Amino acid sequence: MSNIFIKSYKSSLGDILIGIYENQLCILDWQYRKQRDAIDMRVTKLLATSYIIEHHQLHDIVIEQLEEYFTKKRKHFNIPLLFTGTDFQKEVWNELLNIPYGQTISYLTLSRKLQKEKAIRAVASANGANAISILVPCHRVIATDGKLTGYAGGLTTKKKLLQLEGALNRGQLDLF
Q: Which of the residues 126, 131, 136, 138 is marked catalytic?
């Protein structure tokens, strides 16, 4: 049985938990998020494994690419991803990968892209259940009125990520 190799990374925006399973990133999540236990239970249950605090070579690559991102030297990531969730959640997370760096979309637009406009709440819930933050850019999804809403790392972190990417206009900066 393979384990999920876990490492904590202290980023400039907060502590991030990095999980590697069979040479794929399955967790890149804010260590102190509200749903930490639920995310951990879902990932370990679906992969039928457990966490082990042990170094994996992919940890170094993930951290290097994150540091490049945080210093505006990287806009795209080259890390193999492993989604752990329902088929619907995976569909939402795959669509998130299509949101370009420096841009935002609304939950309604995301729902329309998925051809699930009436399931906007389910789409928002799947967005919130994302266990691979930053690389699967759930932070780029905002309310229809342009306001910043829910983010596992907190709204301050979401705002900082969008500022880093140049995705906020002056009006949005004042909304928070």
A: 138
Q: Give me the pLDDT at residue 152, please.
A: 85
Identify residue 173 by its one-letter amino acid code: L
Whole-angstrom distance, CA of residue 43 vs CA of residue 48: 8
Q: Tell me the CATH number for domain 87-166.
A: 1.10.10.10
Q: Which residue has the tokens 């990968």?
A: 97
Q: Report yes or no: 126 and 116 within 8 Å, Cβ to Cβ.
A: no
- Residue spans of alpha helices (H) in the chain: 36-47, 57-70, 87-96, 107-113, 120-128, 155-164, 170-175
Q: Say whether 138 is catalytic.
A: yes
User: Does 129 have pLDDT greater than 50?
Assistant: yes
Pairing of strands 141-142, 105-106: parallel
